[in-house]
Design brief:
Chain A: Its EC number is 1.2.4.4. The structure holds two protein chains of two kinds. By secondary structure, chain A is an alpha/beta fold. Chain A is 38% helix and 11% strand. In chain A, a hairpin with a 4-residue loop joins β2 and β3 (34-39). The longest helix of chain A has 26 residues, at 127-152. Chain B has two domains: 82-265, 3-Layer(aba) Sandwich (Rossmann fold), CATH 3.40.50; 277-404, Rossmann fold (3-Layer(aba) Sandwich), CATH 3.40.50. The chains are: A alpha/beta, B alpha/beta. At the A-B interface, α7 and α8 of A face α6, α7 and α8 of B.
């Protein structure tokens, strides 16, 4: 509400009394030398400056002793004052088009043949780092293949692969520091792999055995490790996004040199939590990096049926978040983008959105057969010609850092290690009955104690109906 | 299991499981019994020591005239004089003390910062602790609840305020799937020490959406604890205990109780999250209640005492889990139970409590458990209608009289 006055200060004070306004902020418009009286609880400055120091100054009344006599003409003003700041106006009625004529381009460093595009900006990667990145991408491929087969053989109940998204998984992890807290969706085991989770530990979680850190309480692929700063995967889609804003908030409060990094798929961006998480992170100025894996499919829903915007990157600006679209199958581009985003998030205490374009080569999960809703040759094309692992491999090989011999050694030893891990995990005993009732609370409540006792008695009465060791 | 009150008037006897019908409780036949006679009947029966049918009155002298006095079982002998304050101030005091004590405690919610909260529970905190630690959030309950969970998993201890409990329905996904579950599904690796609090219950003509009883919906969620405060003393004590708990706790406040005044101790105290509060010891009947209904019960208790009854009133306070120890001891003593709640008939706290008491203390009951609840209707706006959707003291008196026959 803007009230124009042409009088002196005395009118201001009588206004204050008459309207009972607790705060009248008088701001001098220096360009047109006209005072603008706004009745607002928050100073307009709040919306323009970093929020941390100004909020409580807003209720202080600022008075200018000199008030210049004004005319009441509004047409000389180039801008209008509204809550939220100044905004220009136009007499031409024009709607913003629903899409811009050109789609936001995607940042890419390596071409399909594994050659660096000339004049690319990117953060150089050392031989050691590049080789490690490639090894992990290949390991992830082998792991996905073996575990998927294990599910098909009935040895584990469920699995989902990250085939086609190895570059996003590994390159993003490589760009982060170990203190950065990761909140995954579910298609990012590569991040955990990078951080040092062993193949045996992955197998244990999938089999839900006694060595599983999750104590057999979650489905396969719902990995979690507080040691590795990787929050336990939670099945509902997008719930991790507002949580990431909370993690960013906590890191900001504790002034840590770390950020929250969270992943979401293209489908997950339709959830309300996507909007909420991004909006909150922006308003809180929380250090969060949102990485959206736009892989084209949400089970059987193609992105054309998921949203009508130009992907996800354009949504960032709607929340006041800096964003970039990157070729998710280009490991070097992903590495540079995530590394820069992370620095921005921590140094500038702001959220950043990265849309990584890619393709989900595998089925959604072992419960899905994607040939039912998409062409087999489309899948084949992405698997062979647009494969991120091969592309990066070419670059690493061209640099003389990797050979075919290294390749076969890595693949066979990883395969062997995985098969052994699966065999061991399968044989390892399962969780005892006591784990059914632990960790619901820090200390078991009375009703849980009773229920546990009841179940124990039942099992002891008929031990033959229960697996060995079930009730120890 | 119908509450067939033996000896009661046929048409007038309200069955515990039928839809609560106030008219039925005050059926004409009831009024034929003069009040004096019914009370005399109780005492006579006791003197005849007919244990099976009568009410056990230990010593008639023990009938306390001032039934409305709430005995504070946990109050330690106060050395200081204590200080008087309103319930919302007690909540604020508890919150402020915990924020002083532990820098990880923070507050988030809508308008909690410089505005001080819609019910002024966070008044002055933003000025003292800064507006990052007392955080104003945009309007999205699922988001700030999720945010609180993420922050808790990273080491903070957020106190999440829902402007009205009803709005937390929007946060159900985060509360159920993440708050309650993540400690368990992560194998104990991550704890979620959040406190989710806000005003609920039927207010004064706030309309259906703002008069909800969320404890009904949340009670099934595994992994959370629920408590309801009802006095300034227990409000402060429960707030502090909830913040210190490692489990997620939902603290139910009531819109109409914020201005209750009471004198509380100067020295520091906390209340046990899982304990019920003995409001008035008695011998004839156990009345279990919580939150605002406690006051309706105590009002009814005044009338009941004048009529010669000796009700034992327990404020259950802990809605999940129930304090079956205190409740059980009371049932074993009085053998009759009346539950008075604000929840709806179907699926409320009363329904669960009835089941728990029947399962655990069936042998000790002389009459079926009776539960007075609100009807299964959205709370109407019109004052007259709203009044009858909430259990009133007169109905409590009649129910006790029926149960005690």
């Amino acid at each position: 509400m803007a009230i124009w006055f042409a009088r002196s200060r005395t009118l201001v004070s009588s206004l204050r009394q008459n309207l009972g306004l607790s705060a009248i902020f008088i701001k001098h418009n220096y360009s047109s030398r006209r005072p603008v009286f706004t009745n607002s609880q928050l100073s307009p400055r709040v919306f323009l400056d970093p929020f941390s120091s100004y909020r409580h100054e807003s209720t202080a009344v600022e008075t200018h002793p000199y008030l210049v006599q004004q005319s009441d003409h509004e047409d000389d003003a180039q801008e209008l004052d509204f809550p939220g700041g100044k905004v220009g106006y136009t007499s031409e009625m024009k709607f913003i088009p629903e899409s811009s004529s050109r789609r936001i381009p995607c940042y890419r460093v390596l071409n399909e043949h594994g050659k660096i595009i000339s004049d690319s900006d990117f953060i150089p990667v050392s031989e050691k780092l590049a080789v490690r990145m490639y090894e992990q991408m290949a390991t992830l491929q082998v792991m996905d293949h073996i575990f998927y087969e294990a599910q098909r053989q009935g040895r584990i109940s469920f699995y989902l692969t990250s085939v086609g998204e190895e570059a996003i998984n590994i390159a993003s992890a490589a760009a982060l520091s170990p203190e950065d807290v990761v909140l995954p969706q579910y298609r990012e085991p590569g991040v955990l792999l990078w951080r040092g989770f062993t193949l045996e530990e992955f197998a244990n979680q999938c089999f839900g055995n006694k060595a599983d850190y999750g104590k057999g309480r979650q489905m396969p692929i719902h990995y979690g490790s507080n040691q590795h700063n990787y929050f336990t995967v939670s099945s509902p889609i997008a719930t991790q996004l507002p949580q990431a804003a909370g993690v960013g908030y906590a890191l900001k409060m504790e002034k840590k040199n770390a950020c929250a990094v969270t992943f979401i798929g293209d489908g997950g961006t339709s959830e309300g939590d996507f909007h909420a998480g991004l909006n909150f992170a922006a308003v809180m100025e929380a250090p969060v990096v949102f990485i959206c894996r736009n892989n084209g499919w949400a089970i059987s829903t193609h992105i054309s049926e998921q949203f009508r915007s130009d992907g996800i990157v354009v949504k960032g600006q709607a929340y006041g978040i800096r964003s970039i679209r990157v070729d998710g199958n280009d490991a070097l581009a992903v590495y540079s983008a995530v590394r820069s985003a992370r620095e921005m998030a921590v140094k500038e205490q702001r959220p950043v959105l990265i849309e990584a374009m890619t393709y989900r080569v595998g089925h959604h999960s072992t419960s899905d057969d994607s040939t039912k809703y998409r062409a087999a040759d489309e899948i084949q094309y992405w698997k062979m010609s647009r494969n991120p692992v091969n592309r990066f491999k070419k670059w690493v090989e061209d640099n003389g850092w990797w050979s075919e011999e290294d390749e076969s050694k890595l693949r066979s030893s990883t395969r062997k290690q995985l098969l052994q891990a699966i065999q061991a995990a399968e044989k390892w005993e399962k969780q005892p009955l006591t784990e059914l009732f632990n960790d619901v609370y820090d200390v078991k409540t009375k009703n849980l104690e009773e229920q546990e006792l009841g179940l124990k008695e039942l099992v002891e009465k008929q031990p033959q109906d229960y697996p060995l060791g079930f009730h120890n | 299991m119908a509450a067939r009150i033996h000896g009661g008037a046929g048409a007038g006897a309200a069955t515990a499981l039928s839809t609560f019908n106030p008219k039925k409780l005050v059926a004409p036949s009831r009024t034929n019994l003069p009040a004096a006679r019914s009370s005399k009947r109780c005492i006579v029966a006791a003197a005849g020591s007919d244990a099976s049918k009568s009410l056990r009155v230990g010593h008639s002298q023990k009938l306390i005239a001032n039934a409305a006095v709430a005995t504070k079982a946990e109050t330690s002998a106060t050395t200081g004089t204590g200080h008087e304050l309103l319930l919302f101030e007690a909540l604020q005091e508890g919150l402020e003390e915990e924020m002083d004590r532990d820098p990880h405690v923070c507050v988030m919610g809508e308008d909690v910062g410089h505005y001080g909260g819609s019910y002024k529970v966070t008044k002055g905190l933003a000025d003292k602790f800064g507006d990052l630690r007392v955080l104003d959030t945009p309007i999205c309950e699922n988001a700030f609840t999720g945010m609180g969970i993420g922050a808790a998993m990273t080491g903070l201890r957020p106190v999440i305020e829902g402007m009205n409990m009803g709005f937390l329905l929007l946060a159900f996904n985060q509360i159920s799937n993440n708050c309650g579950m993540l400690h368990y599904t992560s194998g104990g690796q991550f704890t979620i020490p959040v406190v989710i609090r806000g005003p609920g219950g039927v207010g004064r003509q706030l309309g259906a959406e703002h008069s909800q009883r969320l404890e009904s919906y949340f009670q099934s969620i595994p992994g959370i604890q629920m408590v309801a405060c009802s006095t300034p003393y227990n409000a402060k004590g429960l707030m502090k205990a909830a913040i210190r708990s490692e489990n997620p706790v939902i603290l139910f406040e009531h819109v109409l109780l914020y201005n209750l005044k009471e004198k509380i101790p100067d020295e520091e105290y906390i209340c046990n999250l899982e304990e019920a509060e003995m409001v008035r010891p008695g011998e004839h009947i156990t009345i279990l209640t919580y939150s605002r209904m406690r006051y309706h019960v105590m009002q009814a208790a005044k009338t009941l005492v004048n009529k010669g009854y000796d009700p034992e009133v327990i404020d259950i306070r802990s809605l999940k889990p129930f304090d079956l120890y205190t409740i059980g001891n009371s049932v074993k003593k009085t053998h009759r139970v009346l539950i008075v709640e604000e929840c709806m008939r179907t699926g409320g706290i009363g329904a669960s409590l009835t089941a728990a008491i029947n399962e655990n203390f069936h042998d000790y009951l002389d009459a079926p458990v009776m539960c007075l609840s609100s009807q299964d209707v959205p709370t109407p706006y019109a004052g007259t209608l709203e009044e009858w959707t909430v259990v009133q003291p007169a109905q409590i008196v009649t129910a006790v009289e029926q149960l005690c026959q």
